C-alpha cells in the first residue's frame, strides 16, 4: 500500500489536554503534550501541543473534520501564508524498513511504526518553523550590528531590545521542551525494530544537525543582544554621570552666588 503522511504547523499551541475528550476517535496514546489517534482502519492523526498536526492516509474531507474538532483549542493560529507543511510518501508491506529521499518503507502497518513516522515528520516541520523564526531574529540582529558599525551607535530602544532577548530565549526553550531530537520515544526503547526505524527517520530528516544549527544561531543572537544591552547600559550610566556632574556644578555655583551676595 502506498499512501502519504502530511504535517502542518498551524499555531503557536494546541490545548491537547482539553481537546482529548472532544475527539470522536480511538486514542492510542496521549499525554499532556500529544495525542495519537486512529481515525479510520488505516488512517491516523497526531496532534502536538506545539501547534503541529500530522495526518496519515487521510482524505481532504477527513482533514477538515479533524480541524473542525480542534478549532476551539487552537491558540494563536499562524497566518495562512506562513503555515509550514511537509508531505512524505509511505509504502507499507515492504520487504524491510528503509528510507530514501522522500519515501519511508514499512514492512507492515503497525501503529507504533506509523506513529514514529508521524512523530519525526512533525518534528521536522516544527524545526522548519523555528528555523524561520530564528532566521528572522538573526536578520534583525544583523541590521542593528550593521547600523552600529556604520554609525557607531545603536538604533534600538531598551524595551524593544528586551523583547528580542525574550523571543530568542523562548524559541530555544520551546525547542528543548517540545522536541525529542536526542531521545527515542518510550515505544522504541525496548523494541530493536522500532529503535532502528526511529534512528533511520532522524537521519533522513537530519533532525540533530538542523537543531544544532538553530541552537548556534540563537546563541549568536543572544550574544549580540547581550552586547547591545551592555552598550545601552553604559550609555545610560554615562548619562547619569553627566547629570550628577551638572548637579554638582549647579550646587557649587549656587554656593558661590550665596557667598557673593552675603
In which order are the strands of the major sheet placed?
A: 3-4-5-6-1-8-10-9
Which architecture of the largest domain does the CATH hierarchy give at level 2?
A: 2-Layer Sandwich
Shape: elongated
Largest sheet: 8 strands, mixed
Tally of alpha and pi helices: 7
Whole-number mean pLDDT: 84
Helix content: 55-70%
Give the count of structural domains. 2
- Strand portion, in percent? 15-25%
Please give the number of β-strands.
Answer: 10
End-to-end separation in angstroms reads 105 Å
Question: Which stretches are poorly predicted, pLDDT < 50 over at least 5 residues?
Answer: none
CATH class of the largest domain: Alpha Beta
In a nutshell, what does this entry contain?
The protein is of the alpha+beta class. It has helices spanning 16-19, 60-70, 111-151, 158-178, 186-189, 192-205, 207-261, and strands spanning 2-9, 11-14, 26-30, 34-40, 43-48, 52-56, 74-77, 84-91, 98-99, 103-105.
Amino acid at each position: 500500500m502506498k499512501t502519504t503522511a502530511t504535517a502542518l504547523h498551524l499555531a503557536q499551541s494546541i490545548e491537547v489536554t482539553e481537546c482529548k475528550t472532544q475527539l470522536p476517535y480511538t486514542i492510542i496514546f496521549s499525554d499532556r503534550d500529544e495525542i495519537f489517534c486512529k481515525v479510520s482502519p488505516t488512517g491516523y492523526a497526531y496532534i502536538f501541543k506545539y501547534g503541529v498536526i500530522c495526518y496519515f492516509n487521510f482524505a481532504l474531507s477527513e482533514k477538515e473534520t479533524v480541524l473542525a474538532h480542534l478549532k476551539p483549542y487552537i491558540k494563536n493560529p499562524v497566518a495562512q501564508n506562513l503555515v509550514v507543511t511537509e508531505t512524505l510518501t509511505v509504502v507499507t508491506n515492504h520487504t524491510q524498513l528503509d528510507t530514501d529521499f522522500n519515501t519511508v518503507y514499512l514492512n507492515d502497518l503497525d501503529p507504533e511504526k506509523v506513529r514514529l513516522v508521524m512523530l519525526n515528520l512533525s518534528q521536522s516541520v516544527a524545526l522548519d518553523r523555528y528555523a524561520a523564526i530564528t532566521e528572522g531574529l538573526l536578520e534583525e540582529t544583523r541590521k542593528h550590528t550593521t547600523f552600529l558599525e556604520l554609525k557607531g551607535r545603536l538604533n534600538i530602544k531598551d524595551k524593544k531590545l528586551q523583547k528580542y532577548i525574550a523571543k530568542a530565549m523562548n524559541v530555544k526553550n520551546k525547542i528543548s521542551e517540545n522536541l525529542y531530537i536526542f531521545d527515542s520515544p518510550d515505544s522504541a526503547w525496548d523494541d530493536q525494530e522500532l529503535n532502528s526505524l526511529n534512528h533511520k527517520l532522524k537521519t533522513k530528516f537530519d533532525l540533530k544537525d538542523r537543531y544544532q544549527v538553530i541552537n548556534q544561531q540563537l546563541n549568536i543572537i543572544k550574544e549580540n543582544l547581550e552586547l547591545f544591552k551592555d552598550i545601552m547600559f553604559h550609555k545610560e550610566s554615562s548619562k547619569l554621570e553627566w547629570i550628577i556632574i551638572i548637579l554638582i556644578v549647579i550646587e557649587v555655583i549656587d554656593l558661590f552666588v550665596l557667598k557673593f551676595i552675603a
